[in-house]
Amino acid sequence: MSSRLKHTLDNRPLLKMHYRGGNLGDQLFAWATLEAVADRNDMIPCVIYSFHDDDDQVMRTYFRGPFEECENAEVGYGWDPGQGVEFVDPEAFVRGPQDTSNVELYGTGRSYRNFEDSGGDRVAAAFTLKDMYTDIVEKTLSEAHFPTGIPIVGVHIRRNVEDSNGGDGEHPGVGYYDNAMRLMRRAHGGPDGSAIRFLIAADDLAWAREQPAFSTATDVYFVEDLAIATHTIWDGFESDDPSHASMVRNLAVLSWCDHMISGPGALSWWASWLGAHRRGGSVVYNDEGRRSRGEEAAYYPPAWVHISEDTDEAELISLNAARPEYDAIWIDFDEMKNKAILRMAHEVADEEEHMDDAKAPETS
C-alpha cells in the first residue's frame, strides 16, 4: 500500500520531507524530527526520494521503520523553522483543525529535544535493525568471549569529520579518549578498574592502532578484529559507497554497549542515544565547537558528560554534586563497596537475631 493511498484512506494530510542523502546520522535526525512533528499534528510522515539509487535505500534496507515514501502529492505550503536550527520545536508548528493541506518540512533538526519526550520510543523502534542483522550482531558479539558480567564501553573514533555534521570539522585528540577510558575504568571497572572492556570502532584504524592508549591496553578490542566486521551479511547490500554497511555495522555494535565514549559526528550521537543512553548507561563526549557556539544544550542530553583531555576525577565529583541528573552515572565504587559491606553486616545481624528468637524457649 503506498503512502498516497494510505493518506486517501485515513484522510490525514502528509508531512513531507525531501530525502537529503548525506551521512547516516543526519538521515536519522531528519526522520526523527519529521516523525515527531507529524505525530504532534496528526499527520502522516513521509519522505520524497528524488533518486531511487542505493544511497536512497540505506535506512529502508537495514532498519525496521516504517519509512513511508510519498510521491506526486501536492504540497499546500512549507514550514521552515529557520536555517541552521537544531531544536525544531514541534509545538511551534500547529495545524488548524480544518487544515487538510499537505506540508513540506525543511531542516534536519539535530536535537534530542525534538523527539525524546513524546516520541523517543517510536524513534528507537523505527531505528532498530531488522531481525536478520540484529541476530548476527548479537551472535558474533556473544562469540567474542568478553568476560561474563562486566560492562562493555563503546568507543567511536572519527577523524574524517565533515562540516555537514554540524560540528566544526575538528576532532578530539587521543588525550580525550585516553582520559575518558581512565574515567570509565574508575566509574565502572570495579574497585581496581580492571572489570571493564572497551570496544573501539574507528574510521582511521591505522591511526588508532598506533596509539599507545589503545595498543598497549589489555582491556581494548577493535571491532575490525571481531567476526562481525567480515560477516557476509554485510555483502548483500550493493552500493557505490561501501562505507554504508560499515556505518550501520558500527552503529549496531556501539549501541549494543553498556556505556559510550562518543566521538564527533551524528552517527556517534545516535550510537550513544540508542544504546547506553536509553539503557541508563554513561555517555561522555567532547565537542568544543558546539560548546563555544552555545549549541551544546540543544544537541546533547543533560545527563551526558562533556570532558576534555584535562578533566579529572575531582572535577567530575564536583560536577556530580552540582548536577543531580549525573548521580547515577559516576559512582564512587569504594563508597558503594563500603555501603554493601555495611548492608550485609546488618542483614547477617538481623538473621542471627531472628535465629536466636526462634531458639528461645517459650514461656508459659
In short:
This protein is an alpha/beta fold and 364 residues long. The protein has 14 helices and ten strands.
Walkthrough of the structure:
The chain has a six-stranded parallel sheet with strand order 7-6-5-8-9-10, sandwiched between helices. It contains 14 helices and ten strands. It has helices at 3-10, 24-40, 58-62, 116-126, 131-142, 174-188, 205-210, 212-215, 243-255, 266-277, 288-293, 296-299, 313-322, 333-359; strands at residues 14-18, 44-48, 77-79, 103-105, 152-157, 197-202, 220-222, 259-261, 283-285, 305-306. α2 packs across α10 and α9 packs parallel to α10 (266-277). It is of the alpha/beta class and 364 residues long. The protein folds into two domains: 3-126, no CATH class; 132-331, Rossmann fold (3-Layer(aba) Sandwich). α6 (174-188) links the parallel β5 (152-157) and β6 (197-202).
CATH architecture of the largest domain: 3-Layer(aba) Sandwich
Q: Strand-residue fraction?
A: 5-15%
First-residue to last-residue Cα separation: 82 Å
Mean pLDDT across residues: 75
- What is Rg? 24 Å
Kindly report the CATH topology of the largest domain.
Rossmann fold
Topology pattern, helix = H, strand = E: HEHEHEEHHEHEHHEHEHEHHEHH
- What is the level 1 CATH name of the largest domain? Alpha Beta
Low-confidence stretches: 1-9, 163-169, 320-345
Main sheet summary: 6 strands, parallel
Number of domains: 2
Enumerate the strands of the largest sheet in spatial order, edge to edge or round the barrel.
7-6-5-8-9-10
Structural class designation:
alpha/beta
Write down how many β-strands occur, each being a DSSP E stretch of 2 or more residues. Answer: 10
SS field, number of helical segments: 14
State the share of residues found in helices, binned by percent: 40-55%
| Overall 3D shape | globular
